[in-house]
């Protein structure tokens, strides 16, 4: 079942009712938090209390976005500055950065989230946009990367999102005003799936960063095996064998990458690998791992200038596979835990029929 995005009048009602609703939820959660703390003899790491605290922090940060975007609209409208003004962009960027900083600070405090860098990250030239192609694995990696781009590089993360997020009164409103692109949760026949990336790429400004996850979904052992089987079922044994050799990543889908790089030949490109949390697949695994003090998210990035990367679509596809091979090898050499394969099949033993 696919839930369509809410109409405008529903979004307005949600925004009006959201802050009182968050206050009510907070009041209801306070006794639960006290109970979770009192269960310390059973839950020595206070996992339930930590999760509940971070949940409430998220709700209030989200409510802050609702009041923040409204206040920006009132103040700038009074000054006669509309959506096309630099002040409009700057105010909303600051609101996003403050929210990301707040969430990351509380994630570190309550669940022990810690980010480490193998080497200093090169965020490219400040005179051109940045295209970021990242591995997708583990809980919250998209939030971490958006925070990294906004806080460390002072760039505005531009993303393609499912239109289901328009139901979130705070995040949906803020990202819409920051020109994020919302796409239907399920594409129909004949849809141009490259259109969102094409339009976002064309609209990138000097200090923008387009964030894409070429794998299209979070890496898990189950999805890794399913991808190999899909290639086998369609007769693409070469791609199946390549995917089997990449135990730590899913094969990248090149369409969005080719579109972005073709539309913005002037942009720098950054490929991001990370490891540390991909073994947390289920909600129960995440819960049991809290606090995460002993499991930092280790990050490595490679940056390419306009003259260091290909321009031809076929060359871009080959280049992307090369980069994903580097990402796979890096993750394999830095991974704290080996992937779990519940059915015991570490290899699907793909064999080519070629002589």
Describe the SSE topology:
Layout: H1 8-38, H2 47-78, H3 86-111, E1 115-117, E2 130-134, H4 141-152, E3 156-158, E4 160-162, H5 169-177, E5 181-183, H6 195-203, E6 208-212, H7 221-233, H8 237-245, H9 254-263, E7 268-275, H10 283-289, E8 297-304, H11 313-334
Parallel strand pairs: 1-8, 2-6, 2-7, 3-6, 4-5
Antiparallel strand pairs: 7-8
Q: Your description of this structure?
A:
This protein has 355 residues and is α/β, with parallel strands linked by helices. It has a domain at 115-155 and 207-355. The chain has eleven helices and eight strands. The protein has helices at 8-38, 47-78, 86-111, 141-152, 169-177, 195-203, 221-233, 237-245, 254-263, 283-289, 313-334, and strands spanning 115-117, 130-134, 156-158, 160-162, 181-183, 208-212, 268-275, 297-304. The strands form two sheets. It has a six-stranded mixed sheet, with helices on both faces. Helix 6 (195-203) runs parallel beside helix 9 (254-263) and helix 7 (221-233) packs antiparallel against helix 8. The model is unreliable at 341-355 (pLDDT under 50).
């Amino acid at each position: 079942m696919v839930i369509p995005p809410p109409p405008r009048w529903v979004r307005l009602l949600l925004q009006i009712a959201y802050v009182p609703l968050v206050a009510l939820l907070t009041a209801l959660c306070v006794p639960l938090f006290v109970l979770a703390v009192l269960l310390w003899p059973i839950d020595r790491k206070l996992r339930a209390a930590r999760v509940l605290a971070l949940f409430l922090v998220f709700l209030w940060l989200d409510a802050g976005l609702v009041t923040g975007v409204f206040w920006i609209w009132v103040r700038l409208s009074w000054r006669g500055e509309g959506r096309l003004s630099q002040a409009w962009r700057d105010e909303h960027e600051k609101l996003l950065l403050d929210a990301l900083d707040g969430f990351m600070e509380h994630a570190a405090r309550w669940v022990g989230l810690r980010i480490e860098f193998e080497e200093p990250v090169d965020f490219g030239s400040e005179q051109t946009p940045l295209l970021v192609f990242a591995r997708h694995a583990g809980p919250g990696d998209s939030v971490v990367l958006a925070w990294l781009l906004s806080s460390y590089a002072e760039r505005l993360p531009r993303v393609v999102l499912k239109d289901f997020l328009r139901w979130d009164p705070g995040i949906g409103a803020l990202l819409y005003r920051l020109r994020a692109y919302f796409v239907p949760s399920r594409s129909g026949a004949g849809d141009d799936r490259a259109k969102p990336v094409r339009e976002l790429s064309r609209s990138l400004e000097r200090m923008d960063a387009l964030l894409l996850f070429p794998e299209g979904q979070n890496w898990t052992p189950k999805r890794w095996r399913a991808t190999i089987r899909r290639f086998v079922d369609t007769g693409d044994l070469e791609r199946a064998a390549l995917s089997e050799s990449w135990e730590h990543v899913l094969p990248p889908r090149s369409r969005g990458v080719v579109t972005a790089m073709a539309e913005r030949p002037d942009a720098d490109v950054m490929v991001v690998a990370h490891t540390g949390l991909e073994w947390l697949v289920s909600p129960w695994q995440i819960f049991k791992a809290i606090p995460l003090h002993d499991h930092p998210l280790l990050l490595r990035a490679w940056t390419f200038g306009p003259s260091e990367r290909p321009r031809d679509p076929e060359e871009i596809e080959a280049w992307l596979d090369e980069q994903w091979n580097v990402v796979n090898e890096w993750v394999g050499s830095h991974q704290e835990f080996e992937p779990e394969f519940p059915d015991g099949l570490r290899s699907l033993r793909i064999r080519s029929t070629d002589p």
